[in-house]
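2024-03-11 09:14:02 INFO queue: dequeued item DNA replication protein, len=202
2024-03-11 09:14:02 INFO validating residues
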Amino acid sequence: MKKFRWDLYGENVSSQERIAQSFIEQFGEYRRKGKGLYIFSKTKGSGKTLLACCLANGVMEYVDICVKFISVPELLEMTKKSYKDFIEKEDIEKIWAAELLILDDLGAETKKEWIDTELFKLIDYRYSNKKVTIFTSNIPIDKLKLNERIVDRIFSMCIKLDLPEKSIRTIQAHDENMDFLKNIMKNAQDGAATPSQGNVTQ
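2024-03-11 09:14:37 INFO prediction written
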C-alpha cells in the first residue's frame, strides 16, 4: 500500500483509505465473513486496478493464501474455451477456488444470457463458500446490467469503496513527463546534451 498515492487525488479520501487499510489489517475478519470489496469509479485510470493489486499484495505480506487476478472479459473468454480445452478448465477451477480473487472490470462484458449464467455460477459459488472477492468496475453495483441474483449477491458479499473521479494515471504521467523535460532542459543548459551522430543511408 506504500505504492498507492492517495495524495494524488487532491481531496479528502480518509474514509476510503481506512477501508483499504482495514482490509489488510483485519483480513481474518473479512475472510471469516466472506466479505470483499467493490472498488468503483466511472473514470478510467482512477486507480481501481492498482488499488486492488496493492491490497492483495498487502494481504499476502501477512497471510499465506492463494490469490488470483483476472479481468471479467478474459475470464469469459477462458470459459468459452474450457469446454474444449481441459487445461483451461483446470485454470478456471483454480480461479473459482482462490481464497482471494480479484475480478477486474466487471460490467465491461456484453449483455448475453450465457454470460449471466456463467457469472452467476462463479459468484454464487464464492458467495456460498464465503470466498473473498474484490471487484473493480466503472459501473455502480445497482446499475450493473446483470441478472438480479448476481447483483444481490455482490451487494451481500462486498463493502463499497468509491474512488474519486480523477485519473491518477494522467496525473502521474504528467508529473513524469514534466520531470523528464526538466532534466532534459537542465542537461541542455549545462552543455551535457549533445546531438546524436549517425550515418544516414539512402
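2024-03-11 09:14:37 INFO annotate: DSSP finds eight helices and five strands in the chain.
2024-03-11 09:14:38 INFO item closed
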